[in-house]
Recover the amino acids of this structure.
């Protein structure tokens, strides 16, 4: 009788635990990448404000990479950064791809390299970065100029 009670209790606990384990295992790459974007955006705003130098989050749409760096020369928000930019950065997890980057003025980049700028006054470009996973689910990271956080939308959000 005791053995039946113990097996029943273990079964009930496993019934509650397994969905959480599956979710954590399958979404750990996405969660880690989302956390990296959130922390990087916050860090770039703080660095730009404290150092007085604008920074950028460089988005390489063709190679599915992102890279944070100081902006040493003034220039447009979308420019060709050359091959040096591919050397370091954060690659998207397997099964994820960058779809496009959309800026508040309506400009949309679907290929090449572009950047979200973080200005020395403490604000950033208003931009959306769109991703898609292997299952076709789309995720939007929304950069807002005066907030230190990035909003995450579980769909393709557009201006």
């Amino acid at each position: 009788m005791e053995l039946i009670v113990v097996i029943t209790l273990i079964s009930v606990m496993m019934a509650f635990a397994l969905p959480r384990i599956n979710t954590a295992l399958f979404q750990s790459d996405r969660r880690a990448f989302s956390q990296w974007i959130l922390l990087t955006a916050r860090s770039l705003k703080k660095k730009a404000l404290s150092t007085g130098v604008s920074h950028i989050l460089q988005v390489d749409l063709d190679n599915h990479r992102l890279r944070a760096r100081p902006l040493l020369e003034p220039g447009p928000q979308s420019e060709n950064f050359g091959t040096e930019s591919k050397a370091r950065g954060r690659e998207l997890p397997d099964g994820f791809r960058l779809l496009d980057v959309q800026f508040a003025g309506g400009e949309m980049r679907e290929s090449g390299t572009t950047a979200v700028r973080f200005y020395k006054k403490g604000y950033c470009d208003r931009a959306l970065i769109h991703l898609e996973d292997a299952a076709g689910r789309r995720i939007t990271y929304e950069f807002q100029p005066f907030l230190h956080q990035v909003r995450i939308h579980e769909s393709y959000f557009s201006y």
